[in-house]
Amino acid sequence: MMNYIEWNIDPVAFWVGGIPVMYYSLLLIAGTVASVSILKCVYRENGIPWEHLQILVMLSIAGLFLGARLGHCLIYEYAYYFAHPLEILLPIQVKSDGSVIFSGYQGMSSHGGLVGWMIAMVIYSRITGENVLRTLDTIALVLPLAAGCIRLGNLANSEIIGIETNVPWAFVFEQIDSVPRHPAQIYEALAYFFTFGINLLLYRRIGLKCYRGVLLGNTLVWVFVARFLIEFVKERQVPFEDQMTLDVGQVLSIPFILLGIFLLICGFKCKKNTTR
Length: 276
Prior knowledge:
Distance between the termini: 63 Å
Helix content: 55-70%
Number of strands: 7
Radius of gyration: 20 Å
Transmembrane segments: 12-43, 55-80, 210-230, 250-268
Oligomer: single chain
Low-confidence stretches: 272-276
Subcellular location: Cell membrane
Family: Belongs to the Lgt family.
Largest sheet: 3 strands, mixed
Pfam families: LGT
EC number: 2.5.1.145
Number of domains: 1
């Protein structure tokens, strides 16, 4: 055990008036602020009105949250949340004796969040009159940055843990058990930050006016290929996945990978045709 990293951080960073402020929330805010700062520069470079960015941020946050929350509740724990519908949108937990405690949001689905975000971006394009694909490309540029921060928040919560291993960098999540495990949250965070770096290079090379859908396609491929592979070293989230060859996260990743490849092919092909 001396060779492994012992992880026992308190998920609560500090308290404000009896309400816990979690590291997860702070990292989520940090990722959001950093993403918005980058998008502000992108909007300025492309002559897009500042008011449009404000609409984009509000709709993105709403779409990501609602999609991620509903995705988790309906896919992973449908029976529980069907019996406790208030807990879907409220950060509370109703005990068997009827008492209510503040619990935070227990579970988010990245696949659901992505679907919710795409719907929000279609709404944004209808409101602002901007091209849907360019809108999706714009926020896809920074989406992996925010996703990486969220995974670090999962690490702070000692959740989404990996399977048992004896690699030198294994983590012992003491709030869970004394078993050395893959730090799957760090694997995903690094993969997402890497994708963000690739996106920045792509943006500097092709911008937003040409190769529509390429930034979105690049994000989908890198993020969900990483998600598919990392799932092999993650603990199953719900019992019914034990009967599956591929878990739910892997099955749901496949359509997004295929969509990403399709967008990349179409984006580069359309540019080639317009330059002939």
